[in-house]
Predict the 3D structure of the following.
Amino acid sequence: MLKIVNRLYGLLPVFVQNFGISLYGWKWHKRRFGGIYQEEFTGFKTRESCMHVHDILISTTLNESFGVAVIEAAACDLLTVSNNVGELLYLWSNDKNILLCINNAIAFSQAIVCLMEDNEKYREIV
């Protein structure tokens, strides 16, 4: 099938080839930016603007495969306090750009209080 299309494409006049390429580009543009793209983009922008009014992201997840929320927080210069789970161990350095805690409410609260009281440590990690 592809051989027939390639052979036919070469026989067509240039303006028809250009029109075909334009239709193909329109199809991909609609596929990429159509549907729920605007709604998702607006939601992302809202979440991004919300992150700029906070100082710390507290991620209490028990299982983390990639850490998209942590990456978004890092893009907004937020310090993250998170469980020591999943891929976060490999993506981030503890006490350098994230505080990794054991899965324990006391450890979380101690880490957060430490950051709130010790501005030097906060600036050092961020």
Observations:
- The mean pLDDT is 79.
- The chain has two domains: 2-34, 54-125.
- The helical segments are 2-11, 14-33, 37-51, 68-75, 88-91, 105-117, 119-125.
